[in-house]
């Protein structure tokens, strides 16, 4: 009998298996396909590679502005896709997951079909039945499909990697992270993109200012944004595709070449035979408690299969928590309160912590919004679109959330996450000596704005009476 069986070889599964070995447990890792999970093979890595190509297209527009003489680039989409696949291979080569797992004495079974529960303590795979004291489910997920007439003509983001030429027109259904990233990338490549959603605003889980700003910037870049649709009525195939939907009780039709669904991410649970192990589900996801234990006492789950926070960084964290609780019998709680995230759109957006609306529900908050135009680096780089918004608890003067739209937003938000993890107060952040000229220092400006507002730093009366004073970037406190 093995101490821990891990089902799934993505970030959650690999982390769980390695952590179990660190704790002295024997471990077997089962992956039906290729190690690395969706992000490496089909999600973040290839999408970011496409975003890099799109960013180079965008940057070329500045050549003449900075005195560089060069023609406008054209897109060879087959070569773009080939480069994207090469990046995936390079990431696999860098990670060396199989060698890493073997070096840690984790037995790895991969590419031989999926695992299936015989009972709560036995898993069948590749003609073998393995007994395990504890089992951790990390089987990941897949793109959700919708049922409507002509749904078979729609694709998901996974189909992008097989495309050899760009469509002229594309409809993307769903304006979450994936839908918005693909929309931004394809628009940069010259595709006429229409982004549609049943929700009243794009990026509906983000702070409202992020959502409204991204909507406006998408429209400026030529993306047609249609929100609040009732639903998809059908896709009809003629010479092209007719995408038929209803909005405001009126049926509308868009002629397009591609319809891509980006409407959620769900696990494929049926092959696992969860009922044989006594593992119950909640909706499409495996039901877990705050310790990531399922309804079977010896079985835990981590990553996308739980439906909790479907991000690589969260999967890695959950894999570690599940392994420690399984091996040590500990009661470590999975907390999702501090998860920086964002999208490689143009402009980028990123967030950590609570939105203003959520934070203001049960406490008094102070809010500062500093535009990118206040940053010298944004002017130098001619990337002045965007803002940094921080939400602070008036009593503790600590960050509750931070939201950024603009150049390098996903990098800037990491600094905000570190500030929150360290429980720094706004006056502490305002006193940090950020390097100049940088974009991350916008957090210092926002913090100083709130520190003045909350009188957390001494200000002479004549300065207080000036009101909203626009501070110089290098202004330092003289307290």
Radius of gyration: 25 Å
How many extended strands?
Answer: 23
SS class = alpha/beta
The proportion of residues forming helix, as a percent range, comes to: 25-40%
Low-confidence stretches: 475-479
The average pLDDT score comes to: 92
Q: Please outline the major beta sheet.
A: 7 strands, mixed
Rounded to the nearest angstrom, the distance between the terminal CA atoms is 65 Å
Instruction: Sum up the overall morphology in one term.
Output: globular
User: Helical element count?
Assistant: 14
**Beta content:** 15-25%
Please give a structural write-up:
The C terminus is likely disordered. The strands form six sheets. Strands 1, 2, 3, 4, 5, 6 and 18 form a seven-stranded mixed sheet that branches. A five-stranded antiparallel sheet has the order 19-20-23-22-21, sandwiched between helices. Strand 5 and strand 6 form a beta hairpin. The chain contains 14 helices and 23 strands. By secondary structure, the chain is an alpha/beta fold. Helix content is 31%, strand content 24%. The N and C termini lie far apart (65 Å). The longest helix is centred in the first third of the chain and has 19 residues.
């Amino acid at each position: 009998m093995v101490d821990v069986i891990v089902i799934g070889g993505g970030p959650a599964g690999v982390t769980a298996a390695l952590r179990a070995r660190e704790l002295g447990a024997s471990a077997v890792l089962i992956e039906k396909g290729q190690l690395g999970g969706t992000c490496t093979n089909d999600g973040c890595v290839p999408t970011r590679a496409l975003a890099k190509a799109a960013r180079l297209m965008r940057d070329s527009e500045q050549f003449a502005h900075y005195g560089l003489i060069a023609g406008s680039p054209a897109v060879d989409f087959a070569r773009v896709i080939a480069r994207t696949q090469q990046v995936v291979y390079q990431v696999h080569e860098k990670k060396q997951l199989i060698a890493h797992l073997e070096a840690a004495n984790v037995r790895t079974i991969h590419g031989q079909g999926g695992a299936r529960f015989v009972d709560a303590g036995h898993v069948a795979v590749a003609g073998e039945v393995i007994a395990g004291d504890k089992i951790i489910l990390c089987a990941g997920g897949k793109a959700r499909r919708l049922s409507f007439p002509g749904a078979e003509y729609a694709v998901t983001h996974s189909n992008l990697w097989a495309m050899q030429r760009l469509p002229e027109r594309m409809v993307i259904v769903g304006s979450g992270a994936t839908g918005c990233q693909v929309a931004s990338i394809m628009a940069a490549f010259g595709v006429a993109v229409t982004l549609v959603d049943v929700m009243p605003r794009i990026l509906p889980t983000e702070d409202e200012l992020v959502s409204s700003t991204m909507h406006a910037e998408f429209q400026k870049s030529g993306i047609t944004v249609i929100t609040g649709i009732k639903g998809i009525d059908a896709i009809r195939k003629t010479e092209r595709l007719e995408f038929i939907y209803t909005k405001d009780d009126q049926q509308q039709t868009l002629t397009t070449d591609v319809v891509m669904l980006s409407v959620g991410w769900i696990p494929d649970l049926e092959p696992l035979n969860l009922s044989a192990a006594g593992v119950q589900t909640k909706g499409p996801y495996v039901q877990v408690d705050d310790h990531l234990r399922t309804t079977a006492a010896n079985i835990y789950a981590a990553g996308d299969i739980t439906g909790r926070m479907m991000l690589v960084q969260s999967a890695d964290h959950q894999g570690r928590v599940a392994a420690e609780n399984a091996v040590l019998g500990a009661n470590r709680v999975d907390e999702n309160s501090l998860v920086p995230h964002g999208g490689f759109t143009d402009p980028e957006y990123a967030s950590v912590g609570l939105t203003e609306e959520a934070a203001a529900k049960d406490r008094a908050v102070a809010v500062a919004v500093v535009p990118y135009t206040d940053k010298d680096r944004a002017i130098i780089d001619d990337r002045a679109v965007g803002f940094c918004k921080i939400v602070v608890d008036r009593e503790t003067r600590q960050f509750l959330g931070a939201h950024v739209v603009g150049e390098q937003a996903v990098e800037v938000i990491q600094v905000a996450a570190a500030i929150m993890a360290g429980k720094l107060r706004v006056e502490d952040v305002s006193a940090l000596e950020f390097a100049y000229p940088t974009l991350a220092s916008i957090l210092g400006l926002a913090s100083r704005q709130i520190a003045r507002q909350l009188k957390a730093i001494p200000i002479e009366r004549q300065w207080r009476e000036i009101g909203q004073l626009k501070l110089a970037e290098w202004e330092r406190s003289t307290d």
